[in-house]
Specification:
Shape: globular
Helix content: 40-55%
Number of strands: 8
Number of helices: 6
Largest sheet: 8 strands, mixed
Distance between the termini: 47 Å
Radius of gyration: 17 Å
Low-confidence stretches: 75-79, 197-204
């Protein structure tokens, strides 16, 4: 019989960010696991630290990425929902930029969505749980995104994500209709890819920092 009950469960509006590394599977196939750890772990640590600087809480770390949640601070300190989305999208974009500048050639890609979720207290396998559609959409968007790309779901786009992407992409953000795995209806996805030109990416990063 399950030992889980509803004690400590609470609903919150949050933004969810998934960050993964492109090319991880090829790396695993080509080098010993110790080498994978030595190359990837420091990079994930750096990206996770960057995300926490934007207010994200790391919910779980996988072999090639992690999930972060924005908006779980104490009630008086929490920002408005739009600010949670802004921080999540900014963190995703900056993680992509940081991965491009890292010596290891494993560019990150990310997915962001927001919405009401159920937050559960810690249990054996996690520091806390987050349950809801926003989590699934963000994960699927991260899977869909190509290297150096951030995809933002429709809820997050309406709450400031589209504006942040337009700033990053200098007006050339993309919009597509995607049918995500396991979902009956397609959704509108907004995206931006880190520019190849180093100066342009630095300028975009400065725009984002100025908007924080």
């Amino acid at each position: 019989m399950s030992t889980h009950d509803r004690t400590g469960l609470v609903r919150r509006h949050v933004a969810v960010l998934f960050v993964d590394l492109s090319g991880f599977t090829a790396l695993v196939e080509s080098v010993p696991p110790e080498t994978v750890y030595e190359r990837v772990a420091p990079m994930l640590d750096e990206l996770a630290l960057l995300v926490t600087e934007y207010g994200g809480l790391i919910q779980q770390v996988l072999g090639d990425g992690f999930m972060a949640v924005f908006g779980l601070g104490s009630a008086p300190a929490r920002a408005a929902a739009d600010d949670e989305v802004t921080c999540a999208v900014q963190a995703g974009l900056m993680a992509v930029l940081a991965s491009r500048q890292a010596p290891l050639s494993l560019p990150a890609h990310a997915g962001v969505e927001c919405g009401e979720v159920l937050v559960s207290p810690p249990w054996q396998s996690a520091s806390f749980g987050v349950w809801g559609r926003a989590v699934t959409v963000a994960a699927r968007l991260c899977d869909l995104a190509g290297p150096s790309t951030v995809y933002v779901g429709p809820q997050a786009a309406r709450r400031g994500g589209e504006r942040i992407l337009e700033t990053w992409a200098d007006g050339s953000a993309t919009i597509l209709h995607a049918h995500l795995k396991g979902m009956a209806q397609e959704i509108v996805v907004h995206g931006a890819t880190c520019a190849n030109d180093a100066l342009r990416t630095r300028e975009a990063a400065q725009h984002i920092s100025d908007n924080r």
